[in-house]
Design a protein that fits this description.
By secondary structure, the protein is mainly β. The chain contains two helices and 39 strands. The chain has a four-stranded antiparallel sheet with strand order 5-4-7-8, with no helix packed on it. Strands 12-11-14-16 form a four-stranded antiparallel sheet, with no helix packed on it.
C-alpha cells in the first residue's frame, strides 16, 4: 500500500511540474508568448497521453495545453512584426496552417482585419485551429504598395497547409507638374523695330518676347529715332503672356525755313519730279526747304527738261519749262527667236532667245517693219514710233502651207472718227484710215491711236471679245492755235516807230 501511494504521489508531482513548466513557457509578464507550429513529417509520432486533474478553460491569458499534442522538432518560423498571435486549440481539436506567399518581404498579413505577422523569405505560415472560428478574408499590405485582399479558399484540415498567394504592386508615382510661377511679355511696336526697355533695361528690338518674368507690374518703354518714346505699365500674371503694343507718334520736326516754286510747262501736263520724287503734273506749286533742288520735267514725245533751282526763304519763284520735241524713241519687237528684223528695208538683226529685240534711237514717225523666218510667211506692217517713248509690238509669224496649229477665236473692232480719214494704229501697228473694221484680233485689251493733222493725237484702249466686233466712235480734239497779237500791241508798235522817226527828224533839223 505504501508503495502504491508513493507511486501516485510521484506521478502527481511530475504532473504538477509539467503544468508549471508549461505555464511558465506561455505566461511572461502577463503576455502570452506565441506558439510555434510547423508541418509534421510524413511519419507521425504518437504523443504520450497526459492526465490532467482539472482541465482549465481556454482563454487568451491562461491556455491549457490540449489533452493530446504532437511533439516534433519543427523548423523555427521567424517573424519581425511585434504583433503577437495566439492560437488556441480546444480540447479534442487539431490545427492546420495558412501559408501566405507574397513577393514583398516585410509586408503585414491580416486575417479578417487582425494582423498575424510579416512576410519573411516570401512566406508567412500562420497556425490556425481547425475547429476554431474560420478565417474568411486574407489581406496583405505594405507602405508604398497597393493593398492586396482576397478570400481564403477554405480552412485547412488538421495538419494541412492551405496556400494563399498575394502579389503587391508598387503605387504608381504621379508625375507632379510644378505650378507655373512665371509669365512673359510680348512687345510689338508700330512701326516695328523700336528698342524695348523693361524697368529701364534694354531687352532688344520689337517684335520680341520677354520670358521668365515673375508675376508683377513692369515699366515698359519703346524708343525709335524720329518718334516720341512710349511708356506704359504692363502687369504679368503666372502662366500667361501680357501684350505690349506701343503705337509711336512721329516727333514734331523742328521748324525749318521754306520757300515755294510755281512750275509750268509748254506744252502743259508735263510730269514734275523734284529731287527724284514725283510731285504731280504741271502747272503746280511745290513748297520746299531753303536750298538747292533739282527739277526734272518729263512728257511723252518731248525730251526731258532738267534744271537746278535755289529756293529762297519765304519767297515764291517761277519755273517755266519749255519742252523740246523729241526726235528719237525706243522700239521693242517681240517675235519668233531667230527671225530677222528689218526696219525701212534696213536689217536690224535677229530676235534673241528671249523673244524680244530692243531698238534704240529710232527716229519718230511711221516705220515699216519686216519680220522673216525660214518656213514662215513674212510679217510686214507699219509702226508709229513715238518720240521719247517705248513703242512695243508683237509680230506673229504664220507657217507656209497648211497651218497645223489650232486657230484661236478672234474678234474685231469697228472704228469711226470725227473727222474721218484719221490714221489708225492698233497696238502701234498701222491699220489704214477711219472709218475701218479690223478683224482677226486676239481677245483682250488693245491700244488705239488716231492721228490727224491739226488735231490732238487720240490714244486709248478697247476690249476685243472672241467672235464679236466692238464698235468704237472717237471725236478728236482740234489742236490749239497760237494766240494772235492784239491790235493794241500793233498800235503801240506803230506809235513807237512814229516817235523814233520824229526824234530823228528833230535831230536833223537842229543840226
Amino acid at each position: 500500500m505504501h508503495k502504491q501511494y508513493l507511486i501516485v504521489l510521484l506521478m502527481l508531482a511530475l504532473c504538477t511540474l509539467g503544468i508549471a513548466g508549461a505555464g511558465a513557457s506561455q505566461i511572461i509578464g502577463n503576455v502570452t508568448a506565441p506558439e510555434t507550429f510547423v508541418t509534421p513529417p510524413a511519419t507521425t509520432t504518437t504523443a504520450i497521453p497526459v492526465t490532467v486533474v482539472t482541465p482549465m478553460p481556454t482563454t487568451v491569458q491562461t491556455t491549457i495545453p490540449p489533452t493530446t499534442q504532437i511533439v516534433t522538432t519543427p523548423p523555427t518560423v521567424v517573424t519581425t512584426e511585434p504583433t503577437i498571435t495566439i492560437v488556441t486549440i480546444a480540447p479534442g481539436g487539431g490545427k492546420g496552417w495558412i501559408d501566405v506567399h507574397c513577393n514583398v518581404d516585410g509586408a503585414i498579413v491580416y486575417f479578417d482585419g487582425v494582423p498575424q505577422g510579416t512576410i519573411s523569405g516570401g512566406i508567412l505560415s500562420v497556425p490556425v485551429a481547425v475547429a476554431g472560428t474560420p478565417v474568411s478574408q486574407v489581406a496583405v499590405s505594405m507602405a508604398g504598395y497597393t493593398n492586396w485582399q482576397g478570400p481564403l479558399p477554405r480552412m485547412p484540415a488538421e495538419n494541412e497547409h492551405v496556400a494563399v498567394y498575394a502579389t503587391l504592386n508598387p503605387v504608381p508615382t504621379q508625375t507632379t507638374v510644378p505650378p507655373v510661377q512665371s509669365g512673359a511679355i510680348y512687345a510689338s511696336s508700330t512701326p516695328a523695330g523700336a528698342a524695348i526697355y523693361l524697368n529701364g533695361n534694354f531687352q532688344g528690338y520689337s517684335p520680341l518676347t520677354i520670358p521668365n518674368l515673375a508675376p508683377s507690374s513692369f515699366s515698359m518703354k519703346a524708343v525709335l529715332n524720329g518718334y516720341t518714346p512710349d511708356v506704359q505699365t504692363v502687369t504679368v500674371y503666372a502662366g500667361s503672356t501680357a501684350p505690349y503694343y506701343p503705337v509711336l507718334q512721329q516727333s514734331p520736326t523742328p521748324s525749318r525755313p521754306t520757300g515755294s516754286v510755281s512750275v509750268t510747262s509748254q506744252p502743259g501736263a508735263a510730269l514734275v519730279y523734284v529731287d527724284g520724287n514725283y510731285q504731280g503734273k504741271a502747272p503746280l506749286t511745290v513748297t520746299l526747304y531753303t536750298g538747292s533742288h533739282n527739277f526734272r520735267l518729263s512728257l511723252s514725245g518731248y525730251s526731258d527738261y532738267s534744271q537746278t533751282v535755289y529756293v529762297n526763304t519765304n519767297t515764291n519763284q517761277q519755273l517755266n519749262a519749255i519742252m523740246t520735241p523729241a526726235v528719237y524713241g525706243t522700239v521693242a519687237v517681240t517675235s519668233m527667236p531667230g527671225a530677222t528684223v528689218a526696219m525701212d528695208n534696213a536689217a536690224q538683226g535677229t530676235i534673241p532667245a528671249g523673244g524680244t529685240m530692243t531698238l534704240y534711237n529710232v527716229a519718230n514717225g511711221n516705220r515699216l517693219f519686216k519680220i522673216s523666218a525660214a518656213g514662215y510667211n513674212d510679217w510686214l506692217n507699219s509702226v508709229y514710233v513715238k518720240p521719247n517713248t517705248l513703242t512695243s509690238f508683237t509680230a506673229t509669224l504664220v507657217p507656209i502651207g497648211p497651218n497645223p496649229t489650232q486657230v484661236l477665236p478672234t474678234g474685231g473692232i469697228t472704228i469711226a472718227s470725227a473727222p474721218v480719214g484719221a490714221e489708225l494704229y492698233i497696238d502701234n501697228l498701222f491699220h489704214g484710215y477711219t472709218p475701218a473694221t479690223i478683224t482677226n484680233l486676239t481677245p483682250g485689251q488693245h491700244t488705239i491711236l488716231l492721228k490727224y493733222t491739226g488735231y490732238v493725237d487720240y490714244s486709248g484702249t478697247a476690249t476685243v471679245n472672241p467672235g464679236q466686233t466692238t464698235p468704237l466712235s472717237i471725236a478728236m480734239t482740234p489742236a490749239p492755235t497760237p494766240t494772235p497779237k492784239s491790235a493794241l500791241s500793233a498800235i503801240v508798235a506803230l506809235g513807237a516807230v512814229a516817235i523814233i522817226a520824229g526824234l530823228f527828224v528833230s535831230t536833223r533839223r537842229r543840226r
